[in-house]
């Protein structure tokens, strides 16, 4: 009988831990990087393809995702980071950055190719065909140097 309160206390502690643990994990999860931070982190390492749309159900967004889905090896070979940008999920600061620095005007669909140097190389208001995208990249001096190595 003397163990009953100890068992009760242990069960209470375990139950509380079960409730608090998910909250602690969420509090410790790293905050996602802002769009400018992501682009800075990619500079000189990755070519970034921004695929911007109001939401993931938007027709042009879905078409662009489908066009790129079968091109994973070609994207990897060219050091691409495909970055979906959904306006409904952006902070006000990221939306402002897109407008001012990248030239995208929400809610319009846009595809923007950003080179390893951080500069905008190409933009389109329609889904971009992978062969056109790769043709543009393969003409760049940095990519030609990569192909020679």
UniProtKB/TrEMBL annotation:
Family matches, as Pfam families: DUF4174
Domain of life: Bacteria
UniProt-listed InterPro entries: DUF4174
Compositionally biased residues, Basic and acidic residues: 140-149
Keywords, alphabetical: Membrane, Signal, Transmembrane, Transmembrane helix
Annotated transmembrane regions: 6-25
Domain DUF4174: 39-146
Region: Disordered, residue numbers: 121-149
Entry protein name: DUF4174 domain-containing protein
């Amino acid at each position: 009988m003397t163990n009953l309160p100890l068992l009760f206390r242990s069960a209470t502690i375990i139950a509380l831990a079960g409730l608090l643990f998910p909250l602690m994990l969420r509090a410790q999860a790293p905050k996602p990087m802002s769009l400018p931070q992501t682009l800075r982190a990619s500079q000189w390492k990755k070519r970034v393809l921004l695929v911007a749309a109001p939401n993931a159900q938007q027709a042009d967004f879905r078409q662009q995702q489908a066009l790129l889905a079968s091109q994973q090896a070609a994207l990897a070979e060219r050091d691409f980071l495909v970055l979906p940008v959904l306006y409904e999920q952006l902070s006000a600061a990221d939306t402002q950055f897109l407008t001012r620095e990248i030239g995208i005007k929400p809610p319009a669909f846009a595809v923007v190719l950003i080179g390893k140097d951080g500069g905008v190389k190409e933009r389109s208001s329609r889904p971009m065909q992978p062969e056109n995208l790769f043709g543009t990249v393969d003409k760049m001096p940095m990519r030609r140097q990569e192909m020679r190595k």
